[in-house]
């Protein structure tokens, strides 16, 4: 029987030990890239894009993250096209993170796949684990939202600012609160309202 590496255990969602040479290599690569990214200015946006392409497992067209930005590895994260994140994004990707197309993050959003055992003895022995997070297409995450491990957010969702997302959120809803719960469905009235607002914009 072949022994799995700590990285394989980590990505499978099993208990693992973070103090591992392979994981340290990935971690240090991310920190080196993040240092350059976070010290860049608005005249270096093309270089920022190159850094994100090197950092993430996969990233679509036109990614934009406003520094500062922090992540553990980056290489366990997949991001679709037209991704935007405001200041202070924290992305702890010890388990896979998948973000769809046309997703917007407000400031200080936290995406946390990481977990620690509840038992204090096992926890202090250095064991950790992670569970994946998935965010669908056309999603807007408000400022100061925390997304906890093992959560899936559907398509066309709005998460209100300050929410703590602990359970799956279905498609086409506005959800808010701690814990985050569905407030209402997004419907045709929303579409009509915002189409009228768009028309008023061009009239003024």
Element layout with pairings:
Elements: H1 6-12, E1 16-17, H2 21-38, H3 45-55, E2 58-59, E3 64-65, E4 69-71, E5 77-79, E6 84-85, E7 89-92, E8 97-99, E9 104-105, E10 110-112, E11 114-115, H4 120-124, E12 127-130, E13 133-135, E14 140-141, E15 146-147, E16 151-153, E17 158-159, E18 164-165, E19 173-176, E20 181-185, H5 188-203
Parallel strand pairs: 2-5, 3-6, 4-7, 5-8, 6-9, 7-10, 8-13, 9-14, 10-15, 13-16, 14-17, 15-18, 17-19
Antiparallel strand pairs: 1-12, 11-12, 19-20
Keyphrases for this structure?
UDP N-Acetylglucosamine Acyltransferase, domain 1; seven-stranded mixed beta sheet; five-stranded parallel beta sheet; 5 helices; 28% helix
Describe the structure.
It is a single chain. A hairpin with a 4-residue loop joins strand 19 (173-176) and strand 20. The protein is of the alpha/beta class and 204 residues long. The longest helix is centred in the N-terminal third of the chain and has 18 residues, at 21-38. The chain starts with 5 loop residues before the first helix and ends with a helix. The model has no long low-confidence stretch (mean pLDDT 96). It has helices at 6-12, 21-38, 45-55, 120-124, 188-203, and strands spanning 16-17, 58-59, 64-65, 69-71, 77-79, 84-85, 89-92, 97-99, 104-105, 110-112, 114-115, 127-130, 133-135, 140-141, 146-147, 151-153, 158-159, 164-165, 173-176, 181-185. The chain contains five helices and 20 strands. The protein has one domain: Hexapeptide repeat proteins (UDP N-Acetylglucosamine Acyltransferase, domain 1). The strands form four sheets. A seven-stranded mixed sheet has the order 3-6-9-14-17-19-20. Strands 2-5-8-13-16 form a five-stranded parallel sheet, with no helix packed on it. The protein is globular. Residues 7-61 form the Maltose/galactoside acetyltransferase domain. Belongs to the transferase hexapeptide repeat family. Its EC number is 2.3.1.-.
């Amino acid at each position: 029987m072949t022994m799995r590496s700590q990285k394989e255990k980590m990505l499978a969602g099993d208990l693992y030990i973070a103090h591992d040479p392979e994981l340290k290599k990935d971690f240090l690569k991310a920190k080196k890239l993040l240092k350059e990214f976070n010290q860049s200015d608005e005249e270096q946006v093309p270089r920022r894009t190159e850094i994100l392409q090197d950092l993430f497992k996969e990233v679509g067209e036109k990614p934009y993250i406003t520094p500062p930005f922090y992540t553990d590895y980056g290489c366990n994260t997949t991001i679709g096209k037209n991704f935007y994140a405001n200041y202070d994004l924290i992305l702890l990707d010890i388990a896979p993170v998948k973000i769809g197309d046309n997703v917007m993050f407000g400031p200080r959003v936290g995406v946390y796949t990481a977990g620690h055992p509840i038992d204090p003895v096992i926890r202090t022995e250095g064991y950790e684990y992670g569970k994946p997070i998935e965010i669908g297409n056309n999603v807007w995450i408000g400022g100061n939202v925390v997304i906890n491990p093992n959560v899936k957010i559907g398509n066309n969702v709005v998460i209100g600012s300050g929410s703590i997302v602990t359970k799956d959120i279905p498609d086409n809803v506005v959800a808010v609160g701690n814990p985050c719960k569905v407030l209402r469905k997004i419907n045709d009235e929303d579409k009509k309202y915002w189409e009228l607002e768009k028309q008023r914009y061009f009239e003024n």
